[in-house]
């Protein structure tokens, strides 16, 4: 879970104008960032942050801890994102099978060559992290939602299952396919290839069966969710298979990029929105708006205030 939500939950319990204003600022950043990662359109993300926070104000004092706060906030934001008038939330709904996402021998050879190029290759990849958001937006919405909630918003699989109302096993399957897909889309973008749906290709016939089994369970392995004995068996295979090592490193790099991705709201917009929401929350609690009143109000586009 994002540390911002833990901090916001603690601040709200203090019930002082200063703490409440800081808490609402943290919640605002969380909702905006999540919305931007899902829709890719700044205006929609700002509208979502304003609407979600306004709808949440009367509930914040009733949410007992950070887990309850996260469940409420992401559920409401998820529902709002599905009603956005812009953004790629209504396309790319093709289901992706593992055979479409597992690398063939040609791609594995390219990964091995890239791994041998050393630090210079890593530096080039670091400079192109801005392509990550494009790769994420290419994902089908169910996969994108799980990837953003797990690898970017730092929620546990069990929390995501609650928010999406699905089984934990479904979350894990979607997460693995989302990671494989975003890795593949990143490779296409880095190679300068135009946007396209992933094309079904023949299965990887030249690789040992152990490789295919490993590729199908990599997220469980990387997230330490496999039994110790199975983990040892997978590790033994990896240590003797350079192609698997190259692919795992490439997938781990894609996951690390996702985990480090942040999108910030415009500072002026954020300040005005925080002022408006803080004053309204203090009004609901009948607390004098000592801090919030010192900042200018903003016209509420969606809330109708």
Give a description of the structure.
The protein is mainly α and 305 residues long. It has helices at residues 3-14, 17-39, 42-60, 66-81, 98-101, 105-116, 119-127, 131-137, 141-152, 157-164, 168-190, 209-216, 218-222, 228-239, 242-260, 267-285. α2 (17-39) packs across α3 (42-60), α3 (42-60) crosses α4 (66-81) and α9 (141-152) packs across α11 (168-190). The longest helix has 23 residues, at 17-39. It is elongated, with a radius of gyration of 22 Å. The chain starts with a helix and ends in a 20-residue tail after the last helix.
Topology:
Elements: H1 3-14, H2 17-39, H3 42-60, H4 66-81, H5 98-101, H6 105-116, H7 119-127, H8 131-137, H9 141-152, H10 157-164, H11 168-190, H12 209-216, H13 218-222, H14 228-239, H15 242-260, H16 267-285
Helix pairs in contact: 1-2, 1-4, 2-3, 2-4, 2-16, 3-4, 3-16, 4-10, 6-15, 8-11, 9-11, 9-15, 10-11, 11-15
When the domains are counted, the total is: 2
- Tell me roughly what share of residues is in helical segments: 55-70%
Radius of gyration: 22 Å
The CATH superfamily of the largest domain appears as Winged helix-like DNA-binding domain superfamily/Winged helix DNA-binding domain
The beta-strand count equals 0
| Major beta sheet summary | none
Q: What's the order of the H and E elements? A: HHHHHHHHHHHHHHHH
* Ends distance: 32 Å
Strand content: under 5%
What's the number of helices? 16
Instruction: Kindly name the structural category.
Output: mainly alpha
Average of pLDDT = 82
Domain RNA polymerase sigma-70 region: 27-86
Domain RNA polymerase sigma factor 70 region 4 type: 130-181
Pfam family, one: zf-HC2
GO molecular function, one term: DNA binding
């Amino acid at each position: 879970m994002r540390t911002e939500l833990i901090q916001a939950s603690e601040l709200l319990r203090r019930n002082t104008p200063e703490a409440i204003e800081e808490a609402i600022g943290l919640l605002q950043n969380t909702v905006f960032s999540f919305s931007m990662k899902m829709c890719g359109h700044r205006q929609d993300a700002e509208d979502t942050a304003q609407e979600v926070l306004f709808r949440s104000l009367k509930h914040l004092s009733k949410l007992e801890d950070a887990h309850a706060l996260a469940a409420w906030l992401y559920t409401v934001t998820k529902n709002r994102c599905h009603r956005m008038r812009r953004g790629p939330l209504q396309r790319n709904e093709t289901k992706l099978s593992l055979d479409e996402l597992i690398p063939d021998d040609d791609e594995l050879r390219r990964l091995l060559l890239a791994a041998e190029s050393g630090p210079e290759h890593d530096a080039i990849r670091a400079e192109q992290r801005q392509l990550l958001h494009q790769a994420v937006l290419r994902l089908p919405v169910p996969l994108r939602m799980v990837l953003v909630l797990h690898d970017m918003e730092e929620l546990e699989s069990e929390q995501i299952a609650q928010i999406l109302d699905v089984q934990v096993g479904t979350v894990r399957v979607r997460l693995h396919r989302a990671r494989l897909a975003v890795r593949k889309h990143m490779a296409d973008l880095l190679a300068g290839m135009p946007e396209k749906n992933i094309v079904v290709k023949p299965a990887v016939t030249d690789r040992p069966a152990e490789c295919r089994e490993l590729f199908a369970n990599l997220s469980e392995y990387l997230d330490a969710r496999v039994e110790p004995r199975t983990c040892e068996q997978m590790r033994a295979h990896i240590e003797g298979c350079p192609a698997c090592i190259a692919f795992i490193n490439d997938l781990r790099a894609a996951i690390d990029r996702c985990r480090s991705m942040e999108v910030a709201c415009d500072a002026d917009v954020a300040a005005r929105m925080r002022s408006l929401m803080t004053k309204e929350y203090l009004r609901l609690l009948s607390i004098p708006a000592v801090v919030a009143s010192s900042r200018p109000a903003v016209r509420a586009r969606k809330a109708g205030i």
